[in-house]
Amino acid sequence: NTPVLVSNVTWSGAGLTVPPSSFLPRRAQDMSTVDRKTTSTPLEKKKKSKTLTTAQHLPKLVVFDLDNTVWTPELYEFYKTPIPGKTLHVFPAALKALKELHTETKWNGSMVAAASRTGEIEWAHMSLKTFKVDKDNTFDDLMSFKVAE
Question: Which residue ranges does the record annotate as region Disordered (predicted)?
Answer without folding.
Answer: 25-50
